[in-house]
Specification:
Blueprint: H1 3-25, H2 27-45, H3 58-78, H4 82-100, H5 109-134, H6 142-160
Length: about 160
Amino acid sequence: MPLVRLIARPMLASMFVTGGINSLKNAGYLTERAKPVTDKLAPAVDSATSSLPLSLDSKQMVQLNGAIHVVGGLMLATGRMPRLAALALAATLVPTTLGGHRYWEEHDAQQKANQKVHFFKNVSMMGGLLLASVDTAGKPSLAWQARRQARSARDSVAKLDPR
């Protein structure tokens, strides 16, 4: 593994591991901050109205998000399925950012500025995660491999068909 990936993945993952642990430890406080988002997500995961086999309240959503951050962060840091881990972290970063850093609702100028910095830090991290999710580490992507196999199969069939 090139040195850049060896260093960059754990650096990117560190915020998710520490943030996820914080979410698990302080789920009560964070649940209140996340309420505007979790209240909108609740109908989507309610077993009565959804095909999902689970029903989560706001606190459980915060805890699940924290657990995904810890596990996904550790996977990214250690290079275990890093593309999938980065994609999962990017997906969970959307509700995290919208629920935790609603700077447009802050009335105190200092708090508003602080939340705005965190909001855009998360947007920046999402960019890094999206790059990590498509990083094939120099190996051909699955899409490239599939196109190559399809072309090879088409060429083989063309050789068999004398038309």
